[in-house]
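Researcher: We plan to redesign the surface later, but first we want a full-length starting point. Tokens attached.
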């Protein structure tokens, strides 16, 4: 049914609530590829202009290293559970990175957590999940935010 599943993450515990659902689907035997994706916005051009090229590169490299370490940690969890996984560190708007990767890599399903923002917060920050839901050409399983 679903061969390649994309699991977008933003580094938060909330985004990781989708992992157990992804693992369960992967272990069902139908999924052949689990792809973990974390996108990062590029450094603001105004900020970049105020920094030396050397410092800007060091900051970019440090952030990229942090993302790769995070994805490796999550990948290790899937590997320990016997599920093959691939990690992707993308640069750009998170929603666009998710949609572009989906279109370019034969993704059949996206599993994403909802951050549960409403009202002004949703308007002010936008919603990656909402944009992915509206624009995806594949099914999107949204894991809702649960209040504690």
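Model: Full-length starting sequence:
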């Amino acid at each position: 049914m679903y061969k390649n599943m994309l699991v977008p993450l933003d580094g938060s515990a909330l985004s990781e609530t989708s992992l157990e659902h992804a693992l369960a689907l992967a272990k069902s035997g139908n999924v052949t590829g689990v792809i973990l994706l974390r996108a990062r916005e590029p450094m603001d051009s105004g900020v970049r202009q105020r920094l030396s090229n050397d410092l800007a590169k060091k900051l970019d490299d440090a952030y990229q290293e942090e993302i790769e370490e995070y994805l490796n940690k999550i990948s290790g969890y899937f590997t320990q559970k016997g599920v093959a996984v691939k990690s992707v560190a993308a640069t750009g708007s998170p929603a666009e990175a998710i949609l572009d990767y989906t279109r370019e890599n034969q993704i059949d399903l996206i599993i994403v957590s909802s951050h549960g923002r409403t009202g002004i917060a949703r308007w002010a920050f936008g919603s990656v999940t909402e944009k992915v839901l509206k624009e995806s050409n594949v099914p999107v399983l949204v894991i809702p935010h649960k209040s504690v």
